[in-house]
Design brief:
The structure holds two protein chains of two kinds. Chain A is an alpha/beta fold. Chain A is built from 15 helices and eleven strands. In chain A, strands 1-3-2-4-6-5-10-11-9-7-8 form an eleven-stranded mixed β-sheet, sandwiched between helices. In chain A, strand 7, helix 8 and strand 8 form a beta-alpha-beta unit. Classes of the chains: A alpha/beta, B mainly alpha.
Chain lengths: ~475, ~90
């Protein structure tokens, strides 16, 4: 087994036992990138030199006998909307093609503090708006399980590079499913933490009340390890939760006896592909065999949640993206008459179609005379969605569902119809609207051998139950061991 | 609520986007707004809106002097600059 195929916990063990160096691990991953990146296209930037420097620094610490974090010396890929000092952070947009942040995001800093080796920045849908990574200004990312299919999105690059062993783990961001859906499409573990658990400082804002950064890993143990490294209070993010953090590794317990799990009927309805439904019901059966109590229930407001999500996220995006005006940073148009002309031309030339569509929807929903019908109404739906989850969690410890109604679709298959693309987000957006944590773990393959993940949703700040539930499932199945052949 | 071509042009202006008729057509805003109109089916008159899921409160801190970013570092990303400033066209006549 090559080094690049291993998990964080396997490599960390080897590093601490001095069986391998971080430079060797990093070189192995860089060689893997050289070998398969042409096919996968998961990266926007590979930061080879700075990665090797970081690896050398960690090796020096190991030699001096310093005690190290579990991610020390481990190559990590970071989604390209998370600021990395000195490494371009483009949001896969022409607007930020040449933007090199003068500072680190909270999570980038946390990775570095813990000795993580940042190996590159991953491709994404432009400004995280999309579900297939096809709206990237730069290039397509392919699904490592079938190169004619999308990896999902918007964190498609972060999912694909982990699945293709081009990184040991990655960070993604999730506004309406952008970690969980690509995790399902690429058979990796993806966690969207509770809103406020991971600081958003340095994450280029899409929808500030919904965005969260989270880990994408090869297994659940690695997920817990990364959460230990990136969670925590940050005074630079006023929505950052100031709570006592558990050791997420202590949730790695293979026991779900007596746990109560609900399956929302609305997430298993007619739009769900039969293969996906069968795999999710199989996962439910597995939990019953492991001693959990599983039953169906009704989670009202699911349909309305989808429209409410698109109104809230687009409204916040239209406001957040107002900063891209061609003045202080980002793309500036070449020819202009006056200041207003710079704004409009820079934005028109710098943004792609999907970003424009969201800005338009958001501006419309916030504009005079329409605010009550759209934005306020969406916020009222938000109250109802939150209430429906509160009711569910009075009865259940976890909710179990698909992350997406289908497996990965063909490249070019959906991108021409925006509304069709939006409708796919039915199983994920409510979690963001209510600020809850959701994890996706590999749960099987459809008749075309494309991966399906099962989503577990938990109470706010109850990542421990999700990690425990996901770990027990992984221990009793072997889907996570089936890797793509590239 | 059906949206007119004129309204869409007005919204584009508010958003500082210059969209041609073809671009407006290809964005399919009518269908997108129709999708958002799903909410009009729901009676939520008596429901209080939630702006934010977590309990939001003012976060205060001591006003401490700490080093800020270096001017030259910040200006590296500016598309046009002169004498330590961002360069823009004349605004005041």
């Amino acid at each position: 087994m090559s080094l690049y195929e291993k998990t964080i916990h396997e490599l960390s063990h080897m590093l601490k036992a001095k069986e391998v160096s971080s430079v060797e691990i990093t070189e192995s991953v860089l060689e893997r990138i050289d070998a398969v990146e042409d096919k996968v296209g998961g990266y926007v930037t590979v930061s080879k030199e700075s990665a090797l420097e970081m690896a050398k620094a960690v090796d020096a610490l190991i030699a001096s006998g310093e005690s190290l974090s579990d991610i020390a010396g481990i190559p990590v890929a970071v989604k390209d909307n998370i600021c990395t000092k000195g490494i371009a952070t483009t949001c896969s947009s022409k607007m930020l093609e040449n933007f090199v942040p003068p500072y680190d995001a909270f999570v980038s800093n946390k990775l570095k503090e813990n000795g993580g080796v940042i190996i590159g920045k991953t491709n994404m849908d432009e400004f995280a708006m999309g579900a297939s990574t096809e709206t990237s200004y730069f290039h397509l990312t392919k699904n490592p399980y079938d190169l004619t299919k999308v990896p999902g999105g918007s964190s498609g690059g972060s999912a694909a590079v982990v699945a293709a062993d081009e990184a040991i783990f990655s960070l993604g961001s999730d506004t309406g499913g952008s970690i969980r859906q690509p995790a399902s499409f690429c058979s990796v573990v993806g966690l969207k933490p509770t809103y406020g658990l991971v600081s958003r400082f340095g994450l280029v804002a899409f929808a500030s009340s919904l965005d969260q950064i989270g880990p994408m890993t090869k297994d659940v143990t690695d997920c817990a390890i990364v959460m230990n490294a990136i969670a925590g209070h940050d005074k630079m993010d006023s929505t950052s939760a100031n709570i006592t953090l558990p050791d997420y590794k202590s949730a790695l317990v293979d026991d779900v006896k007596g746990m109560k799990i609900g399956i929302p009927r609305e997430y298993m309805g007619e739009g769900i592909a039969p293969d996906v439904k069968a795999i999710i019901l199989n996962a439910a059966k597995k939990y019953e065999e492991m001693g959990a109590i599983v039953e169906e229930f009704s989670l009202p407001m699911t349909d309305y949640a989808l429209s409410a999500y698109y109104i809230i996220s687009s409204a916040e995006a239209s406001s957040n993206l107002a900063r891209f005006d061609g003045i202080k940073y980002g793309y500036r148009t070449k020819e202009f008459e006056d200041l207003t002309d710079i704004y409009a031309k820079s934005r028109t030339e710098g943004f792609g179609s999907e970003v424009k569509r969201r800005i338009m929807l958001g501006t419309y929903a916030l504009s005079s005379g329409y605010y009550d019908a759209y934005y306020k109404k969406a916020q009222q739906v938000r109250t109802l969605v939150k209430q429906s989850f509160n009711d569910a969690f009075a009865k259940y410890d976890m909710i179990l569902s698909p992350a997406y109604p289908n497996t990965a679709f063909e490249i070019g298959g959906k991108i021409t119809d925006a509304v069709q693309m939006y409708l796919g987000d039915i199983c994920t957006v409510s979690v963001n609207i209510a600020g809850l944590p959701g994890i996706v773990v590999p749960a099987g393959f459809d008749s075309n051998n494309m991966p399906v993940g099962v989503q577990l949703i938990g109470k706010a700040f109850d990542e421990m139950t999700l990690i425990r539930g996901a770990y027990a499932f992984e221990k009793n199945t072997d889907f996570h061991t089936i890797r793509p052949s590239l | 609520m059906k949206v007119s071509a004129e309204q869409i042009k007005h919204v584009a202006e508010l958003a500082r986007l210059k969209l041609t008729d073809e671009e407006i057509e290809s964005l399919g805003m009518e269908a997108v707004i129709e999708f958002a109109n799903k909410l009009s089916e729901l009676d939520a008159e008596q429901i209080a809106p939630t702006n934010h899921v977590s309990d939001i409160y003012n976060v205060f801190r001591e006003d401490e002097i700490v080093p800020s970013y270096d001017r030259d570092d910040i200006l590296k990303n500016a598309p046009a600059k002169a004498r330590g400033c961002v360069l823009v066209p004349k605004v005041v006549e």
